[in-house]
Amino acid sequence: MAEARHRAGLTVSDVSAHTRIREGLIRAIEQDEFQGCGGHFYARGHIRAIASAVGADPQALISEYDAEHPSGRPDTREDLLSQPAPRQPRQPREPTTGQGSWLGPVVLLLCIGLIVYVAYQLTPGSRSSGAAASPGRTARAAPSHSARPSPRSASSSSLASSGPTVRQVTPVRAVAFGPGGTSDGDNPQAAAYALSGDPATPWYTSWYTTARFGNLQSGTGLLVDLGRTVTATRVSIRLGDTPGADLQVRAGTSTSDLHVVARAYDAGGTVRLRLRSHPHARYLLIWFTLLPPDSAGTYRAQISKVTVTAFSR
Known about the structure:
Layout: H1 2-7, H2 12-19, H3 23-30, H4 40-54, H5 58-68, H6 77-82, H7 100-122, H8 135-147, H9 151-161, E1 165-169, E2 173-177, E3 203-204, E4 220-238, E5 245-252, E6 259-267, E7 270-274, E8 280-290, E9 302-303, E10 305-312
Antiparallel strand pairs: 1-10, 2-4, 3-9, 4-7, 4-8, 4-10, 5-6, 5-8
């Protein structure tokens, strides 16, 4: 969404004014932080509103959100059927005469009949059964089918419910990478510090007189080796505290075939990015196209930690 917003020439304030969503919450959503949304229902609503404002496809983004947060997906018909029917609260008996003595049992029977009818209508295959059955006969037959599932159906249900899970992948190696590849990367002898996890000992790019590398080159970066090919979904990068870095994340199974899967603008601190299309990747290239200022009046970027989230079964 951040990329779509930049393409549309909109600021976070513009999107906030259009959607009436707080600017801080919009920035958090652009970095895949949804804790402030108040729940999955509201997160989907915010995603839909922001995507519509910036000209992105809301349904595609919501589908990605549901894939990343399987516990927050909407309830399906099967989920509703698997839940027990709500128990009716017990009402205290009162001594009554006339209509009051039989009205309560009649209402209770009507409620039970309605629950049985709704369950019959929602049960898969109930409408296609060969012989028509009364609601009472349906209620008696249903427990015999659900109480003794065949081993094959139970096994199929177990396999269907076991979907992919996500896990953290720690890179095994980092190499400085320049316009010519690993042969002209910035500060190559310190590249391993990019995985140290300690902000006090990061890897730095070379320093430049301007944010655009003093017009000497188009960019510079860091090549991260994950050790094996995974289905990557997100990446977390710890930069310096000063914002101002523009960067791309490129992914691929070889260093000669890397494609852009995420972008960040005016970044600083810990940047969390969702990777488009969940690429199969062994290598990630963090490629800076704009550098933040440093305390010496020059420009350079730093990285002290890289973590990748990937699917696994």
